[in-house]
Design brief:
The chain has about 350 residues and is mainly β. The protein has a domain of about 80 residues: SH3 type barrels. The protein is about 10% helix and about 35% strand. The protein has 4 helices and 21 strands. The strands form 4 sheets. It has a 7-stranded antiparallel beta sheet. A hairpin with a 4-residue loop joins β2 and β3. The longest helix is centred in the N-terminal third of the chain and has 14 residues. The radius of gyration is 27 Å and the shape is elongated. The protein starts with a helix and ends in a 49-residue tail after the last helix. About 30% of the residues are buried.
């Protein structure tokens, strides 16, 4: 009721042409600094956006905070917020202070290019780019025993669309089976820097907090699922996991779990398929520890402990026994030429 009255009051102010600094005509050129809402009626509201959901948005215009339905807003133009980003070459990942909260729909548009699909001969999973040079995190079980890795990325185009691109040569940098984490590196096809996602600054997740995951469940690319944190300390096999009720399916493994500020708070890695709403993510604190100490888990293909997946050998072209396998007991086959593939 109150929000309806507020919107009615705003409409009346606009109709009567009263001077209110936060409410401007759409065509006015010199406007106060702040976030701008272009309303369906043509008016512009300027202030500080303090909260938003999928249905509503709240903006502080000074004397009071006004609420608007998203359906009544034609355009949202946010001023450049003072975001303080910190990037350490030694740690690869970045954190940022002052990131604004947005709903998952808006965050997906911003963060989509940072999410990748990781494919191997045995299956596929997801991943998230954490460094502009192409370093990305995924699950160890996605790449375990594989060296032929392929990544699908979505590169931003000048018109605002995303170009789906497959990168054939993916480097496996480090692998930690205990944490179920792997660090890979992809190379930009145009020798440019990648869009990447920030890691969370502090481990402050709370039960009931909204989170969302972006990944490729069953190969369905760029799928978003949303839910809440069920608990942030679920113990499994000596580690604590984030339990969430957002849907996680095969193919989501290794994908990012985001909070409302668009920070990576976890890496999704498992769910209980026979039960609904029981899904888990590796906390960001484990991810940071793995990245900081990645040299201890560096992948070495010559190390027998690295493991390889041996696929079935190719079949013979012709029936019979190859000459080098004959013992003298078996007569040669009439069709045996000794040729193998």
């Amino acid at each position: 009721m109150r929000s309806t009255l507020v919107r009615s009051a705003v409409a009346s102010l606009l109709a009567s042409s009263l001077h209110v600094p936060a409410l401007l005509a759409a065509e006015e050129e010199d406007s106060p600094q702040g976030d701008r809402l272009v309303l369906a009626g043509g008016a512009v509201v300027v202030g500080d956006i303090v909260k938003r959901t999928d249905e509503s948005l709240w903006i502080d215009v000074g004397p009071q905070v006004l609420e608007f339905r998203i359906a009544d807003v034609l355009e949202i133009v946010e001023r450049d917020a003072p975001v303080s980003a910190t990037t350490d070459a030694a740690t690869l990942f970045s954190v940022a202070e002052g990131l604004p909260e947005r709903n998952s729909r808006e965050q997906a548009r911003i963060l989509g290019p940072a999410v990748i699909k990781v494919s191997t001969p045995a299956g596929l999973g997801s991943g998230v780019i954490i460094h502009p040079d192409g370093y990305a995190i995924t699950n160890a079980h996605v790449v375990q025993g594989e060296t032929a890795l392929r990544a699908t990325v979505w590169l931003p185009e000048p018109d605002g669309t995303l170009k789906r691109t497959t990168i054939e040569d993916v480097e496996l940098v480090a692998l930690n089976n205990h944490y179920d984490l792997a660090l890979v590196r992809v190379t930009h096809p145009d020798a440019k820097r990648f869009d990447f996602a920030f890691m969370e600054v502090d481990d402050l997740l709370q039960p009931g907090q909204t989170v969302f995951a972006i990944g490729n469940p069953l190969g369905l690319e760029q799928t978003l699922t949303e839910g809440v944190v069920s608990t942030r300390t679920r113990e499994l096999d000596g580690l604590t996991y984030i339990q969430i009720d957002a849907a996680i399916n095969p193919g989501n493994s290794g994908g990012p779990l985001f909070n409302a500020r668009g920070e990576v708070v976890g890496i999704t890695n498992m769910g209980i398929l026979s039960r609904e709403s029981l899904n888990f993510a590796i906390p960001a604190r484990y991810v940071k520890d793995f990245i900081r100490n990645r040299t201890a888990f560096a992948f070495d293909p010559s190390n027998p402990n690295s493991g390889h997946r041996y696929h079935p050998p190719p079949a013979r072209r012709l029936a019979g026994i190859a000459p080098q396998l004959r013992t003298g007991d078996a007569p040669p086959s009439s069709t045996d030429s000794g040729t193998t593939r």
